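Journal club prep, notes for RB
We'll compare a predicted complex against what the paper describes. Inputs for the NAP case:
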Amino acid sequence: MFNFKNRVVVISGASSGLGAQMAKGFAEQGADLVLMARRLDRLETLAGELSAMGVKCLPVKCDVTDSAMVDDAAAAVEKEFGKVDVLINCAGSAKNAGVIDMTDEEWDFTMTTDLTSVFYVTRAFAKIMKKAGYGRIINIASMYGLVGNTAIDTVAYHASKGGVVNMTRAVAAELAKYNITCNAICPGYFATELTEAVLSTDEFTAYMKATVPLGRYGNSGELNAGAIFLASEEASYVTGVILPIDGGYTAV
Ligand SMILES: NC(=O)c1ccc[n+]([C@@H]2O[C@H](COP(=O)([O-])OP(=O)(O)OC[C@H]3O[C@@H](n4cnc5c(N)ncnc54)[C@H](OP(=O)(O)O)[C@@H]3O)[C@@H](O)[C@H]2O)c1
């Protein structure tokens, strides 16, 4: 099961955090990788590490909020590999503020980075998948796309990730006829560049222990098994699924 040899896996947001962790997980499964983000130096370093594991690895500098740059990235990937088997939409960021205090700029930044970008990247890469009649799209949403929270005011992040969750269902329904599946993973708290400032406070640790049944943050690599399953050939009848990997946060 789960043979990724000669499978091409594109990961946006691969220069750090969960994207980089998933890239390593897929390389361990033998997949060829396309690593996308803005920090090319980081991608090149990671590509060097993964190539040493015997897989092909293409770093592509791409700002996912720029649709022309996304289309160029997709064209470069198609030229290099001739196909895309798996797309993981992982790039993301956020400006945190509550609904009363948030500025237009903070709202627009978050919605563009976390929701509109998923549309741009999916549109560009699904065209390539459609030609082959095969594809697996995995959107990294968030447990905050499923529920609100009382620890940190971040209304645009909730809205954008909720949008990703329902876009996942819409894309799953629409692209099923091309044998393309689309599923979402909703991570809980993982310490990454995005979250470390918030997660490292005593206050947040206490909140997390009180609200996450497993009583801890996610460890590096704990998203990988879910992503690998959804990306596998064997998950051929799984589409439109929203999978929380959150230590039980959304179960209570
Ligand atoms: N960590 C958590 O607790 C958590 C929980 C739920 C959901 N998530 C989601 O998981 C995803 C990854 O987050 P992370 O925690 O791994 O954070 P991270 O370490 O900050 O990684 C974010 C990644 O997104 C890329 N990115 C951001 N803006 C981009 C843009 N405009 N164009 C291209 N790439 C861009 C960054 O690369 P460059 O800066 O090099 O472009 C980086 O590779 C995000 O969608 C986040 O919302 C995280």
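Talking point for the session: The beta strands are 8-12, 32-37, 57-61, 86-89, 135-140, 180-187, 242-245.
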